[in-house]
Every structure is written in C-alpha cells, then in structure tokens.
Amino acid sequence: LSPEEFRELGHAYVDWIADYRARVGELPVLPGVEPGWVRERLPAELPEEGEPLTEVLADMDRVVVPASTHWQHPGFFAYFPANASLASLLGDMLSTGLGSQGMLWSTSPAATELEQHLLDQLAGATGLPAEFTFAGGGGGVIQDSASSSSLVALLAALHRASGGAWRTAGRDGREVLYVSAHTHSSLEKAAIAAGLGADAVRIVAAASGGQAMSADALAAAVREDVAAGRRPVMVCATIGTTGTGAVDPVREIAAVCAEHGVWLHVDAAWAGAAAFCPEHRGLFDGAGLADSYSTDGHKWLLTAFDCNLFWTRDTATLIDALTVLPEYLRNAASESGAVVDYRDWHLPLGRRFRALKLWTVLRRFGLAGIRAHVRRHVELAAELESWAAADARFAAGVPRSLALVCLYVVTGRGTDADNAATKAVLERINAGGRSYVTHTVVGGRYLLRVAVGGLETEERHVRALWDDLCAAADAVTDAVTD
Ligand code: PLP
C-alpha cells in the first residue's frame, strides 16, 4: 500500500471498528457456532494474487463477527473483562505505524524511555514504593501477560536462590515454589517451563474460612522444607484471585519470605487497577515489600491486549539471570551503562512499543478517569450483591471482592441440588445472548462468577443480567419441582 492508499483504506477500517463498537451491545455476547464453522467458510487455498483489502472487511462481517465472543460487549461478565478502550487502540495503531522494535535502547530510544517513564509514574500512582522505580534503583517493564511476568519472576528467584549458579548449572532438584490453591494456574505452568516440574509447586493451605493463603501455614511449610534440605525459591501471593478475588495477606507473607530470603512475587493481574483508588489501597498492604509485582493493563486498566506491567526492586538479579549478549547486539549506548536495554527483562528478544497504547489511555482518561472507571464497576457490583442479598433465591458464595460477585442458587435441597441449579442457570444465561458469565468451584460449591468491568457496562446491563438470573432461577427450580 502506498501511504495514500493506506489513508483511504485506513478510514474504512477505522469506520468498521467504530461501527462494530457502536453496535456490539446488540449482538449476542456468545457466537453459538459449532466447531469447524469458521474453517468451512474460509477459502481452501491462499490467494495466488493479491486482493483488494475491502474484501477483508466483508469477511469480518461474514465470518469473523458471527463467530466471535464479544469481549467488549457491555453484557460481558465472564473471566475478567479485558478492556480494549478505543483510546488504547489509537496508541496501538501508532505503535504499529512506527513499526519499531525496542529490544535495545539504541533500536528505539523513545520506546525504551517512554516505557521507563510511564512505569515509574504508574508505580507512584498505585502506591508502590520508590524502590520499584528506575529513579529508586528498581524498575518496571511491559510484558505480554501476567503469566510471562510470573515466569520471569521465577527465573530471577531461581537465579538469586542459587547464588547465581542456576544460569549455568540449571536446577538442582531441591527448589520449591509456594502458591495457594487459588493462585493462578500460570504459576504451575511457570514451574513446568522453568524445568522444576509441577511437583516443585507446594500448595499452602488457606486461612480458615476463606480462600486467602495462610501466612502461618506458609511459615510452617517453608521451615519443613528447609529442614528437609529443600530450597524455598519463591512465594506467589495474589491480590485478587481469579476464582473469587481473594486477597492473600501480603505483609505477613513478606515477613516469612524476608526471614528465609525467599523471592516474593505479588500477582495483582486483575485487582491492580483498584490501587489507583485510595479507598482500595488497604487491599495492597505489604505489596511494596515484594521483590516483584505485576498487574495487567489489559484487564481492568483500559488498555487493549497485550499489556502487563511488571516491576521489580531487584533489577540486577533479573538482568543477570536472563542476559545473553551476542556480538551483533553490542553497541556504544549499552556499553556506556547509561541506558536500559529491555531485551534482558523477558524471554523474547524483540519487543513491541506497547507503552504507546498505555500512554494514550493515561492521557485520555487521566488518573481521575481511571479511578471513576474502577469505582463505577465496584458500585455496580455492590448493587448486584445487594439485590442478591435481599432475594431468597440466591446466596453469596463468598464476600464480594471489588467488582467480582460470586453467587449460587438456593434450592433448599442441599449442596448438590444447589450446584445443579446454579449450573443450569449459568447455561441459560449464556444461551440467552444478553450476558456472559463463568463459574468457579469453592469448597464443593458451584458458583456463578459475575465480573463487572466492561468498558460500556452500565447499570441497565447489570439489571438485565439480574432479571435474567431471577427468571432462570425460577425456571430451573420449577423444572426440578415439576
Ligand atoms: N493472575 C491472575 C490473578 C489472573 O486472574 C489471571 C487471568 O485471569 C492471570 C494471572 C493470567 O493473566 P494473563 O492472561 O495476563 O497471563
């Protein structure tokens, strides 16, 4: 494409996106296609000759949209919503437009320094201590996902725990990684990818009556492992677990880690956005004591996938663990020691200019706009919680955490009947097309998770979900009674 052709087509593509976003709320959230539906509609052969790119837009309408789960739909309450604000799309477009690759400072000074600058500012805006900033001796980086951040943290932790031997000798078979039963599954995957094996993951018991990790149980497990000659490497504490939004007692966990020299990684993938609001800061108590901390820009923080924010106070260990320097990457700026080369902060060498989409978000919304965004969802979730609390057909499975509400249907005929009814309600909601919810299981109870957090989700959408929940509960309970 020439720049002029791009300009013309680009307008058509932007129009397509704007039209899609304007009507996404009228589409069924879930596509309802059978496996193979998409492939059956795609040509068997690649085009021998180029085609007009307007054809792609036609195929978006013909094939892609009908077979898409609409994550930006205001009735999307599943998983954790992934906000892809239109402001972030504009930044993403600039990034792709520049087409730069910021593996070294010298391959794109702007990509490196804008990222450093934003991560320093965001640390301040979310209450992380100065030690996590470049100015304070640490630093932050944008990774593709929270899963990658967990893996990178584990690699740095392995390096530190082995006194630097891990990089050359690999694991010694004694390493242990501590999580809770509610820690995200990416930690187990990190242990597998790091060559520790899933058996190196120790699941620490929850404090009684909840889903948060027990710091006492952690201390006992670490003591037991040390006595048995094992090597505690890392603890992952979560602020806002995936299933129920539980918050581990980070300050107490940090004390255990400090006593035994264990790396503490704090995973706040979803809840991290709430740290912009002073009234929610209490949930982050002790996060500043961690060795590393991560939160997803692409969940609640308005930035289109992929954008994970990762900070560590121990950048020296991280870089030492991962650095590999072939001759062709050597350059004067790196050798001056005056620049940051992000190539050593993650597994891939090449990296996108992701800071631009975060920048457009921060400049469009401002900190006040981000706080308002988070507060609106928390308020809507609190409303839903209050409707359910006042209705005998439903009960809360766990206390609401920020904008996440977990409910089950009360049949009065025991847990198995409640579980069956709740599952049936979930299936009805998701077949209905207005809303999409997912589930979790806690202590044998099947719970419907409602994660309020869509960009365009308003009270009327939460109300629509509630009306559908009530109707589905009645239908399911009537069906069982008949
Ligand atoms: N950690 C937590 C607590 C999560 O809830 C999730 C995803 O929902 C992840 C990690 C994984 O996030 P990502 O898709 O960015 O790897």
Automatic annotation (TrEMBL):
Q: Which organism is it from?
A: Streptomyces synnematoformans
Q: Which InterPro entries match?
A: Aromatic_deC, PyrdxlP-dep_de-COase, PyrdxlP-dep_Trfase, PyrdxlP-dep_Trfase_major, PyrdxlP-dep_Trfase_small, Pyridoxal-P_BS
Q: Which domain of life is it from?
A: Bacteria
Q: Which PANTHER family match?
A: GROUP II PYRIDOXAL-5-PHOSPHATE DECARBOXYLASE, MIP05841P
Write the protein's name: Pyridoxal-dependent decarboxylase
Pfam families given in the database record: Pyridoxal_deC (PF00282)
What is its cofactor? pyridoxal 5'-phosphate
Claim: Signal is one of the keywords in the record? no
